[in-house]
Amino acid sequence: MKEVIKTKSNLLTLIVNGEIINILSPWHIEVDFEQEIITISKRNLYFIGTDTSTIAFRFIRKIVVNEHLFGANIWIKAIGGSVSAKYLPKGKLKEIRQKIIDYNKTKRNHIIFS
Phi then psi for 7, rounded to 5 degrees? Predict the structure, then answer.
């Protein structure tokens, strides 16, 4: 499965949820099924660089999607820590969660979720 799913925080969702400060630096999530990694990034407050967190599939222990009236947040717990992204499109997060679960079913040698 050579697929990459990318999405970012929606402008309207950020405004409706009162996150106006994050309009210029929305959250981005990228799920790469070939390299088996999830990358969450966000520009820092000074717009000098980008803060990035990357987790390998094999370290994932839990995925939580918290849906709002507009948008949804994702929280991924892994061995040694966790990462989160906020105000992403609900449909994309549902797709990401389902594809990771389906991908997990194809792997008999190691189980992503415990």
Answer: -155, 165
Question: How many CB atoms lie under 10 A from the CB of residue 90?
Answer: 16
Q: Give, rounded to a whole angstrom, the gap between the first and last alpha carbons of the chain.
A: 22
What is the 8-class DSSP label of residue 33?
Answer: T
Residue 108: CA atoms inside 13 Å, Cβ hemisphere, count?
0
In angstroms, the CA 85 to CA 104 distance is: 22
d(CA 92, CA 89): 6
Render pLDDT for 45-95 as a digit per residue (tens, 0 to 9): 888 899 999 998 888 888 899 998 889 999 999 888 899 999 999 999 999
Query: Is-contact 68 57, C-beta < 8 A?
Result: no
* Phi (first) and psi of residue 48, to 5 degrees: -90, -35
Q: Supply the pLDDT for residue 7.
A: 94
What kind and span of H or E run contains 104? helix 90-106
Q: 98 Cβ partners below 8 Å, 6+ apart?
A: none
